[in-house]
TrEMBL record, chain A:
Domain DSBA-like thioredoxin: 9-209
Family statement: Belongs to the GST superfamily. Kappa family.
EC number: 2.5.1.18
Active site (record annotation): S17 (nucleophile)
GO molecular function annotation: glutathione peroxidase activity; glutathione transferase activity
Claim: Oxidoreductase is one of the keywords in the record: no
The keyword Signal belongs to this UniProt entry's keyword annotation: no
Transmembrane regions: none
Gene Ontology cellular component list: mitochondrion; peroxisome
Catalytic activity: RX + glutathione = an S-substituted glutathione + a halide anion + H(+)
InterPro entries per the UniProt record, alphabetical: DSBA-like_thioredoxin_dom, GST_Kappa/NadH, HCCAis_GSTk, Thioredoxin-like_sf
Gene Ontology BP annotations: glutathione metabolic process
Protein name, entry field: Glutathione S-transferase kappa
UniProtKB/TrEMBL annotation, chain B:
GO biological process, one term: glutathione metabolic process
Enzyme class: transferase
GO cellular component: mitochondrion; peroxisome
GO molecular function, one term: glutathione peroxidase activity
Protein's organism: Daphnia galeata
TM helices/strands, residue ranges: none
Catalytic center residues: S17 (nucleophile)
Protein name in UniProt: Glutathione S-transferase kappa
Domain of life, source organism: Eukaryota
Residue span(s) of domain DSBA-like thioredoxin: 9-211
EC number(s) on file: 2.5.1.18
Keywords: Transferase
Length: 227, 226
């Protein structure tokens, strides 16, 4: 009897978003537990916000204050070493992640085997170490931490401003908009010829149910997993 | 050895909010499982939104579309019968829930043993059956279905528009805002170390962890299907 096909799971992400890092790590951990084909799709959250008229939650002061606590609690729950950013407006909005996401787009094209690793390192820089992710030097360091060759890294940096790359990032962002996205993470499950979009890092039990899989909490590898 | 004092859990709710209904039912189901003192606090979400500058999610079109799907999925997960509202702007914003929450406040003041059941019946009216919750008949029907007797219904309905009731609703709403609330549900867990505010119906694993309890999914009495 033929075994059931792997379910394609598209993961639209931008390293500016901490909740997205949480979802990313969970999906990476579950690659060996769920029958899924995880497809990483770096997009540009800033562009998505523009297209949909959405705004970052911190625009409502009480939401911002709550989010600070919520992030730390979730980081502990998911086992991700997130640390609050000291100057979020400067880091996330003024500096932003356009260059980082373009760089990831190049990596996706040229060295897809390193995409997961470089994404993780960029998240670590901005959301764990409080370091820059705009300058070429910063991007180089992130890629180096995944054992990419210097020459390959330089090639990727050089390609960042190519129109093909800019268009590719735009297209990925548009694809997310087509799925109904308004924020990050946006996760799209492809089942039985239809697509099901989920937003956020707090819908795993629902996604598991839809995929006919088991949600074992943030650490599926632990012998006695708790929800 | 003395039993440990139950953890006080304040539940700020408004029946206009469907996610709040999910949270409500889960907390009620967990009463025999968690060592908690669940305190129901009817407040006015419209008032919270105004004070905090927050807006309902449906003001962003794609959020509104997503929310419809998300509600149906969550309803199935939590085992609650939700029917999407056909004219949400009219029902949720124009008509709203001020009278319903005043009625529940009055019940909380004068016949608190009915608060849980009448709240449930009001949620059922608006979010399961698509029925009105603003008219006198609607409120009285909900109370009747919740097994309140006629005289108690009359008393609570009459006192709905007292200053005492208005002030109580205002005060409860302000308390939630003072805890940092910006929406519903707002759950405040009081531990020895202090109080922690949670928003939404998707933080139960974190709430359980804080209370040193076990989260067994939406149906704690079934054989743990998550």
């Amino acid at each position: 009897m033929a075994s059931s096909p792997r379910i394609k799971v598209e993961f639209f992400y931008d390293v500016v978003s901490p909740y997205t890092w949480l979802a990313f790590e969970v999906l990476c951990r579950y690659q060996s537990h769920w029958k899924m084909d995880l497809v990483l799709r770096p997009f540009y959250l800033g562009g998505l916000m523009n297209a949909t008229g959405n705004r970052p939650p911190m625009m409502v002061p009480k939401k911002g204050l709550y989010m600070h606590k919520d992030l730390l609690r979730n980081a502990a729950y998911f086992g991700v070493p997130l640390k609050a950013i000291e100057d979020p407006f400067n880091v996330m909005i003024e500096k932003g992640t356009l260059r980082a996401q373009r760089f990831l787009t190049v990596v996706a094209h040229e060295h897809p085997e390193h995409l997961e690793g470089v994404s993780r390192e960029l998240w670590r820089r901005i959301w764990s170490l409080g370091e820059d992710i705009v300058e070429d030097e910063s991007l180089h360091l992130a890629a180096k931490a995944t054992n990419m060759e210097d020459a390959d890294i330089q090639k990727c940096l050089n390609m960042m401003n190519d129109s093909t790359i800019k268009l590719s990032l735009k297209k990925t962002t548009e694809d997310a908009v087509e799925y109904g996205a308004f924020g990050a993470p946006t996760i799209v499950l492809h089942l039985n010829g239809r697509s099901e979009m989920f937003f956020g890092s707090d819908r795993f039990p629902l996604m598991a149910e839809m995929m006919n899989e088991k949600w074992k909490g943030p650490f599926p590898d632990m012998i006695k997993s708790s929800l | 050895m003395a039993a440990t004092t139950p953890t006080k859990v304040e539940f700020y709710f408004d029946v206009v909010s469907p996610y709040t209904w999910f949270c409500f039912e889960v907390l009620c189901r967990y009463r025999p499982y968690w060592n908690m003192d669940l305190v129901l606090r009817p407040f006015f979400l419209g008032g919270v939104m105004k004070t905090t500058g927050n807006k309902p999610p449906m003001t962003v079109a794609s959020k509104g579309f997503y929310m419809q799907k998300d509600l149906i999925r969550n309803a199935a997960y939590f085992g609650i019968d939700i029917k999407l509202i056909e004219d949400p702007y009219n029902v949720l914003v124009q008509k709203g829930s001020l009278r319903a929450m005043k009625f529940l406040t009055s019940i909380n003041l004068h016949c608190p043993m009915y608060l849980e059941n009448v709240s449930r019946e009001l949620w059922r009216r608006i979010w399961s059956k698509g029925e009105d919750i603003t008219e006198e008949n609607s409120l009285k029907e909900a109370a009747k279905t919740a097994q309140m007797n006629e005289s108690d219904i009359e008393k609570c309905f009459k006192k709905m528009d007292d200053t005492e009731t208005k002030e109580a609703l205002k005060r409860t709403t302000q308390e939630a805002v003072d805890y940092g609330a910006f929406g519903a549900p707002t759950v405040v867990v009081h531990t020895k170390e202090g109080q922690e505010m949670f928003f939404g119906s998707d933080r139960f694993p974190l709430i359980a962890q804080l209370m040193k309890e076990v989260w067994k999914g939406p149906f704690p009495d079934k054989n743990s299907k998550l």
